[in-house]
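Appendix B, example 12.
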Amino acid sequence: MIQPITASYMRQRIRACLVATALCGPLGVGLMPATAQQADSAQDTTSGTSEVFRIDEITVTARRRAESLQRTPVSVTAIGGEDLVVRSIDSFNELANAAPSLDINGGIPNGGGSATQIFLRGVGQNDYAFPNEPGVGLYIDDVYISRTAGGDFGFMDIERIEVLRGPQATLYGKNTIGGAVKVITRQPEGDTRGEFGVTVGRFERLDFYGNVEFPLSDTVFAKISGAQRTRDGLGTNLIEQDLGNEDEATIRGVVRWVPNASWDVSLTSDYLRQRQNGPAGSMVHFERNDANAGGIDLINSLLVQDEIARFGLEPPFDQYGDAFVKTLEEDGKDVYNSFGTVETRDWADIFGVSLNAVWTGDNVTVTSVTSHRRYDIDIRRDSEHTPFDIVRVDNPENTRQFSQEVRVSGLSFDEKLNWVVGAFGIHDWGTGELFAPLLSGLFEATGGLADNTAFITSEIEAYSLAVFGEGTYYFTPDFGLTLGGRLAYDDKTYNYGLSRPESGQVPLPPEDLVADWTEFLPKAAVEYTPSDDLLLYASASKGYKAGGFNARALSGIAPQPYDPEFIWAYEAGFKASLADGRVTINGAGFYNDYTDIQLLAVLNLGGGNVETVIENAGEGRIIGGELEITARPTPNLLLNAGLSYLDTEYTDIDPDAENAGITENNEFINAPEWILLLGGEYTIDLKNGGNILLRGDATYKTEQFRDAVNTPQLLADAYWNVNSRIAYQDPSGNYEIAFFVTNLTDEVYITNGVEVLGLGYVEAYYSRPREWGLSALARF
């Protein structure tokens, strides 16, 4: 049986973990394959001969301390690094098929298609622009990642990922209103070892990855990891550019110093270089109406002749209209091919360095996390996907962040109180440009009477400061009360200027916009363990996402601010271990009171002018729950299942949001009502001592809208995603070869899109089709 969590036991676990790694190291991982993590076994004390097998204990740090998943009163899914591999999860977009209530997509296509827009329990943010904040916090080795652009990086040398559902503001901060995702990488442990792998597959896929670790002395260890990912595109545009391709290289180095049992210090540096062409998409709807008819007629009479001659366009493709529409229902995978003629791009250079230092004493631990990160992105998008230069967006950005967190945790009052207090600060600053030649050529064609081209310059400087504390007092070994709170302060200065290069007009000279917010974010929870195999808990907490400024005031109207959004979340759950540890069942139900909801919409301002805005749409409520089951009926068979349900509803809509097309009848964005996860793996032991691993996974999601105004053409239909894998491992465990197929049933669905009916069209982007691959891995 799993040892009950007492204060003494918790102290022992914390010490052992902190000595082993800077991040509470040798932590168990969830749903690990039998090839990497065998079921626990022991002699049956009754007969003395029968083998007892159970699911391995999983250790997580969701509450900023190392503890068993089954004794953590938080809704958490933990996915081990080995499990990511056998489930063919190699980047954030694939992670969406690994946890209930989780959805991940590239967000608004301005983000280049590689932005990481994470939604948990129907809460997130669909705009990557830097005045805006994510709704789900992303942490890599305890470092908060403030930018989502270029964030869909390939997973490399991962120890585990923890998905924390529900507001995590007390211990993690302002932008965890929907939850938090923690990525923990493997740390060097003092051995000389490494691994190297290669993957080939459909679309000329060729990936290389590897790592090597080695001691520099008895107390200093080093590790270098690297990966290169390349894939051809899914489609092309009229200038024969690959769309939906991959070209990404990553390198990470770690130096770790462990001089004694008290100190553990890691210095980490990482760099990502991405040179991709952007996602594959198409126009999915064209509509001429009273509001946009004049603009469409203007385009066809003045702005299409050059492209007609250049590309030899013949009717009906010589006019801007519905001839360019492609839908999944009518055109199938041809939606990957665009009629666009703009050379698109999705480029990123991201660099980071962090210093994690942990000191452990008697009943107290001090943790310091210092980090600097730099993001340089360059994104270009052809929005309407026609040969005509109607809407193009060029958007380079350069941003920086410096963050510092200090935490002190320990045990007090005869080890009945487990507590943590700390302070956090982050400074973000950066510059950006947005060149949007709406109706390019209009100025010349009208003799200087009309100029819709916009050139935006912007600067951001933001500070966030917070102090926080949380403690759990165990009145008895079975009953604990947790109280916590975070006092957060945010200050933003946003400089915005708009000019029109063709006419030389400056509708909005650069001007500073300033706002600040101070919030207190409390939490209270109770936990009760009536037996060693059952945990019951209930909690109430407040989540918060900072306000900001609209980043795309293309029309000449000054950027408008929007306020923070809030959630009061109420949750009750249980975690149970059954059948002598062979089965775990974890469940949670919740009610969220959601206010000042920030939603993205595109406004039609007339005359060919459109504007992307974020509005505080009003209020809403979310009711739902999750259930996760893991079972090991035999030592060689592992089964898992997950289920989530979401019932979302707007209860009040602001008039400005109504003008943008958001009503109380609208569905929440990226919030499927049901998500079902099914998985299983079986290990075949071979006579030579090697083994064969068979793995299958299936994810079902009901339909969901990809924009706030619920554009019918941006409704992603319900779909199944099925992955399979077969792997052989040699007797020594040093070599492995695997064949895998992702999206086995070849389902293609809309992942994101934008409605721009002010100019007559709706655009959409799509999931990847069926792909196969062959990988080989060597360890030494």
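The domain at 7-779 is CATH 2.40.170.20 (Maltoporin; Chain A). Residues 127 and 722 are 29 Å apart (CA to CA).
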